[in-house]
């Protein structure tokens, strides 16, 4: 059985962010729960994985509702998209679900390959701006 694109994205995160504790969530009891819970240095986040070219990121109405409820109580949610046929990761704040998502919706950052994994981890787990390196610079698309 071949891996789905989202499974490959999850494997990539686990491979390069070894000091992050990841739990893949596969719930058939509640609709909309993000794909991954992650914790690093005491900070807990939720991550919805997408590997598509959809202008609205392909979020279901259930995912949007779950993300909005989590944000309302102070939770942290990100959407990580690996657009098909692109060698990049686009990171979106969960707060983008508060407005209609279109092709003009800007990501927090775009990490082109080779991915600067330290900067990506900093973006996900700290309140500050991600660090940049000569290898890859997060951009706003």
Write a brief structural summary.
23% of the residues lie in helices and 23% in strands.
Q: How many whole angstroms does the radius of gyration measure? A: 14 Å
Low-confidence stretches: 128-137
Strand ordering within the main sheet? 1-2-3-4-5-6
* SSE ordering: HEEEHEEEH
CATH class, please? Alpha Beta
* Largest sheet, strands/sense/barrel: 6 strands, mixed
Tell the overall outline. globular
Q: Give me the CATH architecture, please.
A: 3-Layer(aba) Sandwich
Here the CATH topology equals Trna Endonuclease, Chain: A, domain 1
Strand content: 15-25%
Describe it for me?
- The protein starts with a helix and ends in a 16-residue tail after the last helix.
- It has one domain (5-125): 3-Layer(aba) Sandwich (Trna Endonuclease, Chain: A, domain 1), CATH 3.40.1350.
- The protein is built from 3 helices and 6 strands.
- A 6-stranded mixed β-sheet has the order 1-2-3-4-5-6, with helices on both faces.
- It has 141 residues and is an alpha+beta fold.
Describe how the helices and strands are arranged.
Elements: H1 5-16, E1 21-24, E2 36-40, E3 43-50, H2 61-72, E4 77-81, E5 88-93, E6 109-112, H3 117-125
Parallel strand pairs: 3-4
Antiparallel strand pairs: 1-2, 2-3, 4-5, 5-6
Comma- or semicolon-separated keywords:
141 residues; Trna Endonuclease, Chain: A, domain 1; alpha+beta; 23% strand; 6-stranded mixed β-sheet
């Amino acid at each position: 059985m071949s891996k789905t694109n989202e499974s490959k994205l999850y494997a990539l995160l686990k491979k390069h962010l070894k000091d992050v504790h990841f739990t893949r969530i596969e719930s058939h009891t509640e609709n909309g729960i993000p794909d991954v819970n992650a914790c690093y240095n005491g900070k807990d986040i939720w991550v919805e994985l997408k590997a598509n070219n959809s202008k609205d990121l392909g979020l279901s109405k259930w995912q949007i509702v779950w993300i909005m409820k989590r944000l309302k109580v102070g939770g942290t949610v990100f959407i990580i998209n690996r657009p098909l046929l692109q060698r990049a990761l686009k990171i979106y704040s969960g707060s983008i679900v508060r407005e209609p998502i279109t092709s003009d919706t800007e990501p927090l950052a775009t990490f082109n390959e080779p991915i600067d994994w330290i900067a990506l981890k900093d973006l996900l787990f700290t309140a500050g701006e991600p660090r940049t390196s000569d290898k890859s610079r997060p951009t706003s698309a």
